[in-house]
Amino acid sequence: FSSSHTDYRESSEIILFGLGKRVNYKSVCFRKAAAQIIQLAKSRKVESVRLVADSFISRNLTLPQIVGIVAEILLLATYEFDRYKTKKENKKDKKIETVEILTEKKADASLLKAAEEARVIAEGVLMCRDLINEPANIMTAQKLAAEALKMANRKNLECEILEQADLKRLQMGGILAVNQGSHNPPALIILEHGKQYKKNGTICLIGKGVTFDTGGISIKPAKDMEKMKYDMSGAAAVISTMGVIADLKLKVHVVGITRA
Asked: pTM of the full predicted structure?
């Protein structure tokens, strides 16, 4: 956060962005504008961006909201799944290193909190995207379970993985039947946060995690067939959401269950 008295003549380019009448400013409008600004900066290979936040403030859009949106969009709009790109290919891409939020107001705890919460949420979204974008021959049920366990250990979540023998013992025939379409064994992932808050009720998140095409290929068009790997998006969303809940230390009992 910086004072808006910065000399703009030091900037190589200035972008004027309008959202219409100030009375109509809403967070969704600013989110779209922020994404476009970041994408424009990225396309022009800009490494540093300054945003005059005060010019967007309205009765529907506070400074902490603006700070949070910028912090979140910076991560989301610059995301690329480049794990399998060569180093030579990656060198071609310049990335935005800093986004400076300029404001007349002195940075206080509310702004820092908004930025931190937005960063945590955005990183959860990026984890979800990474899980989804892995090819199906890599992101098997066992791999998804391993990623969930690794995340749980890192964020102090309770994690239980039910493997094929456990599923047979518990007579979970539905999962076992569907899994016959795969050479890889199934898994049921159970994540838990905030057991001490159980007396106030429990929220349960359930996500589908089929990591292979379960059938019907003969009646599906060939176009976009590779996107069947997204069939495990529900599980990825639950796993990453549980990580965000843990990072934010929410005072609520949440159980996440995903079939993989």
From this structure: 0.84
